[in-house]
Amino acid sequence: MGPGTGFGEIALMYGDKRSASVVATTDCVLWELDGSIFKNIVMSSTEVKRNMELGFIDKVYLMSKLDRYEKLRLIDGLEAMYFAEAQLIIKEGDEGKYFYIIEEGEVECFKTNPQGQEFVVRTLKRGEHFGELALINNE
Hints:
Blueprint: H1 9-14, H2 35-58, H3 68-76, E1 100-101, E2 107-112, E3 118-124, E4 129-130, H4 132-136
Antiparallel strand pairs: 1-4, 2-3
C-alpha cells in the first residue's frame, strides 16, 4: 500500500478481528483514527444521508403509501449517478429502466415536436423526480 491508502475500516465497522497483519516496509507516517470516533462519524453520516433520502422519497406521491420499512428498503436500492452539465440522462423514446430523484442540481425535460424541434416542458430541481411513468406503463 502506498500514500493515501487506508486500512482497518472493515474490522471497525463490523466489530471484527483484523483480517491481516500490516508491517511497515519503509519509514512511514500514518494517521490513526480511534475506532469510536470512526464509528460515530460513519453512523452520523449514514443517518444524515438516510434522512435526506427519506425526505426525497416522502415527496414522491407514488411512494407516499409505503410504510417506513418499505421506504428504507427502497433507499437501500438507490445508487448515486453523476452527470455533467448538458449531458443526456435519458432520451425521449428510450426504454424505461430507471426512476430518478434529483439530489443536487437541475435537469430540463424536453419534448420534440413533429417538425423535429426540441422545447423545454419542465425544469426539475433538488428533491424532484422523473422516469416513473415509463416504468409504470412498462415502456
